[in-house]
Design a protein that fits this description.
- The chain is an alpha+beta fold.
- It has a single domain, classed as Nuclear Transport Factor 2, Chain: A, CATH 3.10.450.
- Helices cover 35% and strands 22% of the residues.
- It contains 5 helices and 6 strands.
- A hairpin with a 2-residue loop joins strand 3 and strand 4.
- The radius of gyration is 21 Å and the shape is globular.
């Protein structure tokens, strides 16, 4: 019985230490970058590699206007993605994706995705659940994507999209995650390997 109490006591001490470490302020020599999101304020993790500095969020007057603007950005990107898959057009997909991983995903999608018709912009509907990070150098959005009857067996799905800015188009897909609390922060603050 004493052994069980000992194990419980050690676990409680470890948990208490983790809580104290989490709640205590960062040490004096540590720099953090604070990024203002539309729905929350996030502190970027300290990185040992050069990271893009935090930039102010794009200027809009209301949360509703920014949400509508981001929905339009995502609808345009998803339409570009699906139209490129439909036509098997790698050049077109490179205008909407920022990484080689997405190009690899595109090649797989061309073989697997079945369409009921040619995509049009009206086929894609995006509903934003939360804008998780909104900076000039990185936009992270948790949303619901609905492609209606465009795809065989399609359903509405939730996704966290990480977008990077581009010279080709205002934003491009960089990565995606399943849940808002996944590890997407590194995609914004780490070293980027973008395709031109």
């Amino acid at each position: 019985m004493n052994r069980v109490r000992f194990v419980i006591a050690i676990a409680l001490i470890a948990l208490l230490g983790a809580v104290v470490a989490f709640m205590s302020p960062r040490s004096a020599g540590t720099s953090t970058t604070e990024a203002k999101a539309v729905t929350t304020t996030l502190a970027a993790p300290v990185s040992t590699t050069p990271a893009t500095p935090a930039l102010a969020a794009p200027s809009t007057t209301t949360l509703e206007q920014r949400t509508a603007e981001v929905e339009a950005i995502l609808e345009e990107l998803y339409f570009g993605w699906l139209a490129a898959v439909y036509r098997n057009d790698e050049q077109a997909v490179r205008k909407v994706v920022a990484t080689e991983d997405y190009v690899d995903t595109f090649e797989g999608a061309v073989r697997r995705v079945e369409f009921t018709k040619e995509p049009s912009p009206n086929d894609i509907s995006v509903t934003i659940d939360a804008i998780l990070l909104d900076r000039l150098d990185c936009l992270v959005v948790h949303s619901m994507i609905d492609t209606g009857d465009l795809l065989v067996g399609s359903e509405t799905f939730a996704v966290v999209d990480v977008l990077w800015p581009s010279n080709v188009q205002r934003w491009r897909f960089a990565t995606n995650w399943k849940y808002p609390n996944d590890l997407w922060q590194w995609d914004c603050d780490g070293v980027r390997k973008e395709i031109p």
